[in-house]
Amino acid sequence: MKICMIFPTYPPNYQVDGIGDYTRILVSKLRQRGHEVFVITSGRYAGNDPRVIKIGGGKWGIRELVRVFRLIRRDGFQVVHMQYTPISYGYGLTFKLLPLLIRLSAHRIHFIVTFHTLVAGRWISRINALLLVMFSHKVISTHEELTQLYQKWLFPFSKKLVQIPIGTNIEPVEVDGERIREEINKKYGISKNATLLVNFGFPNPWKGLETLCEAVKILSREGDYRLIIMGGLTDRGIEYRYEIKGFIRRLGIEKEVIWMDGLKEKDVSGVLQASDIAVFPFVDGISIRRGTLMAAMAHGLPIVSTRPRVKCPYFRNGENVMLVGPGDKVALAEAIRKLSKDRELRDRLSMNVKALSLGFDWDRIAGSMIKVYSEFD
Fold first, then answer.
1. What pTM, to 2 d.p., does this model score?
2. What is the widest separation between alpha-carbon atoms in the chain?
3. What is the C-alpha to C-alpha distance for residues 377 and 370, in angstroms, rounded to an integer?
4. What is the 3-state composition of the chain as percent helix, strand, coil, each rounded to the nearest 5?
5. What angle do CA 212, 215, 218 make, to 5 degrees?
6. Which helix (H) or strand (E) covers residue 370, if one does?
7. Mean pLDDT, the chain, whole residue set
8. Whole-angstrom Cα distance, residue 312 to residue 318?
């Protein structure tokens, strides 16, 4: 099958993007299964894959819409698959007319849109989402919150909807975790008996880093706890990073917080394997839409997070994760303390969350996607 994948920030790209990584891995898995997959992305793409087509600059308007439509018609694609989040495409209407153009004049081409975020809090995004949904042949949701929102506001198009989750963007690699732990301890002056916490991803106000730092402050009064924060920086995250660092200084826990930037995927995997507990105190609750969470699960790390905003069947408090209320620094510190002192509990969470992660395996995700494509074959 000949497939065209569309996403503006396809890696390698100067702007780091988690959905870009998702798209890259999905494209790779589809190609491994023998499908001919091309990618349309912006001129920011810095790679050398001949099957990646660059158009325009950072913003897509009428000119880019026309060019993409001509490319799609000319190159004989059977499926056009858009990875969509409002901020990636901008809030104008123009490019969201692509499925309508395909419906009107390219009847053999089928258009699919995967929503990673539906509206992002702007009223114009509701119109954009409606346009995409109305004229798409299939709609894919990546998590329960989005599925419930879709079913509430776009219920006339419920038959188009399929939920397919994301997978980890950091695959586990074979490394000596104990050796890496020793290297980290030596480099940062950490005792071998310290509890090493880890949090990673693109910093933003929804990650609950303030609550996590306050919990570390509480824990530091009674024991040796260190927090590693890893992750790339987007244009939007630089200012927030400065705010968090200032917050840490005011708390007086600069010694307890270790920043690791610019690590390669294999090095991130190594740090995860060297850590004791992953902590993700999301403001809006634990969710399978979080690639960082998926990575921690794939590495079998005991996880402390926050209760989900909507009903989620995957996570069971005390069985495969530890859950506390969002913004509750005291409860967060208590959950981390309990895990750090209870090896049997850590082992149980680790085993169960690793088993849970098998349901989000990339080969399984690719198979589900191909099943959707095959409806048009």
1. 0.93
2. 68
3. 10
4. 50, 20, 35
5. 155
6. helix 362-374
7. 94
8. 15
